[in-house]
Amino acid sequence: MAASSTVFSDSYSATSRLLLPFRIRGFHLRRTLFLSPKSNKRSFVSSSAFASVAMTTETSSKLLDGKLIAKKIRDEIAGEIDGIKESTGIVPGLAVILVGSRKDSQTYVRNKKKACEDVGIASYEANLPEDCSEEEVIKHISKFNSNPLVHGILVQLPLPRHMNEEKILNAVSIEKDVDGFHPLNIGRLAMQGREPLFVPCTPKGCMELLHRYEIEIKGKRAVVIGRSNIVGMPAALLLQRANATVTIVHSYTKNPEEITKQADIVISAAGVANLVRGSWLKPGAVVVDVGINPVDDTGSARGYRLVGDVCFEEACKVASAITPVPGGVGPMTIAMLLSNTLSSAKRLHELK
Amino acid sequence: MAASSTVFSDSYSATSRLLLPFRIRGFHLRRTLFLSPKSNKRSFVSSSAFASVAMTTETSSKLLDGKLIAKKIRDEIAGEIDGIKESTGIVPGLAVILVGSRKDSQTYVRNKKKACEDVGIASYEANLPEDCSEEEVIKHISKFNSNPLVHGILVQLPLPRHMNEEKILNAVSIEKDVDGFHPLNIGRLAMQGREPLFVPCTPKGCMELLHRYEIEIKGKRAVVIGRSNIVGMPAALLLQRANATVTIVHSYTKNPEEITKQADIVISAAGVANLVRGSWLKPGAVVVDVGINPVDDTGSARGYRLVGDVCFEEACKVASAITPVPGGVGPMTIAMLLSNTLSSAKRLHELK
């Protein structure tokens, strides 16, 4: 155990290392056991969206269908924005600042813009060259800070190496920090009796998924794997706020398997493919897999495919419920960004 | 277990309920086994300071002597302040704001002033009547904020009920928040790669005690009992920063005994007399007891005496090291307040 515990990194970043002890292949589209959100009825539905992670009915795990829930949330948001536009003329606006020309960042920004459009949020964008100065980035942030049409500001990470991320993120007005990364927000999240203006999107998405499936958190043992500023740590704070008893497992933890096995709820955000094996889980545990890790796959046209932190094939035989990768936490993150932007617009305009 | 788990409160406050299942009495001054700080040698010293908690040598526990360490730290601080005064003429200053006339608060404020005097910190004080307005308190805070002779500002809690504590504490300049309760400080404490300007005094005192006794934290299992904003939660964040694997046990935790028994390090800040029994501890655990709870004692002139959260008589037979109450964390808290005030003066005057 000591060996594997030093393998995973604390920061939530995709790794390209192939850590798969075996390949999860040969999954075919089958009839899949889903748990209907907000109901305890199990229903058989067929879905092509989960072809790659479809479970056979021989397992007892239910899929926590992030794609489905995120769609529902986006529809709710779109409806609310329609209403606001009609009654007040206000259009929520999200500004995205992209520095440099990383292909992956460009894709993320494009996806966010598309998601905004779909629900009626106006997008604003600043594309700055790789070699621009910190001051220039901060100048654009300041402009968005004072622009009343902009209710949320997002700086796409990672920034070029020569920039001080802390300094730049701190320039975003706390009132428009829809990513929720400002230390003032994190402090309020940690404190009893205080309310953060925004909750970071990925951990908020994990919690929303648990809530929509009516999974009880109060009094449960929870383990969060990974303690990054953007996922692990705030996820632990959120679980704690919901009155779970929380343990964070990280790279210095000596017996991660033993500790994780005590948990009723596991949120894994380690960024290591297939770190969490079936043997790590307590029978009946609920598993939320935040990892999106590329692993080599010569059978794929791209040469790789994406897997979570959790060895799905093993975990789905032990867990009572589990998120797929992809189609689990990923879609929830973008839905929460839209939700934070809408909340911000409502707060800034003092709408209910 | 479920019964006792709902008994203790989350907030760190002394309770007057008598929860003692038996009386810890009949302790006499005996020769006590101390662990010398910053050395692994055990030495026999006799001390009248710990008469009430003296351990017999039949136990294996060492006392973590907060009174001794705090004295050492205060001497170090006094020496440093002397040097600063001589070379720069600067005198560190601490302002205390006391609202109302609670006897206990008056005693605390008097003790803090005395401790300041002893190390050469100038004290400033604002005593406001119980029925003054929030605005009046904030006006005094603002004056201290802009007074260059004041490097630390402390609002004595609790405030009268009609006041909004959050609003008042937020008025203290983040640069003079020597209590470290500002959410921006807590946020930075929670985040990797960020540094708080100040760490709250009591949890900082717990950590300093562990460090001075060279107790290793990295990779250890730690349990914090209680999750108050001023002790439990920041203590957990500090242990996590020191790379322990941390679990917070609180009033919704179903099996506090079982969880606590896994810990190499226990910090208890529940505010419940004798909550933590010997059976809660892993043999060899290190125990830091933050509780200061009055329990009825007809044998005492005051009619009560102070005990910790930990049943000392049982725990000292199981733990490898333990703090006494009183004489453990208490003196460390005041020493850390002085330390924070000195750090603040050095930072504001850009001294090394």
From TrEMBL, chains A, B:
Q: HAMAP family, per this entry?
A: THF_DHG_CYH
Can the keyword Hydrolase be found in this entry's annotation?
yes
Describe the location of the Tetrahydrofolate dehydrogenase/cyclohydrolase NAD(P)-binding domain by residue ranges.
Answer: 200-347
What keywords are annotated for this sequence in UniProt? Hydrolase, Multifunctional enzyme, NADP, One-carbon metabolism, Oxidoreductase, Photorespiration
* Known role: Catalyzes the oxidation of 5,10-methylenetetrahydrofolate to 5,10-methenyltetrahydrofolate and then the hydrolysis of 5,10-methenyltetrahydrofolate to 10-formyltetrahydrofolate.
What family does this chain come from, according to its entry?
Belongs to the tetrahydrofolate dehydrogenase/cyclohydrolase family.
Q: Which domain of life is it from?
A: Eukaryota
The GO biological-process annotations, alphabetized, read as: photorespiration; tetrahydrofolate interconversion
Q: Which residues form the Tetrahydrofolate dehydrogenase/cyclohydrolase catalytic domain?
A: 64-179
Biological or metabolic pathway of the protein = One-carbon metabolism; tetrahydrofolate interconversion
Identify this protein by name: Uncharacterized protein
Q: What's an example of a GO molecular-function annotation for this chain?
A: methenyltetrahydrofolate cyclohydrolase activity
Q: Which organism is it from?
A: Dendrobium catenatum
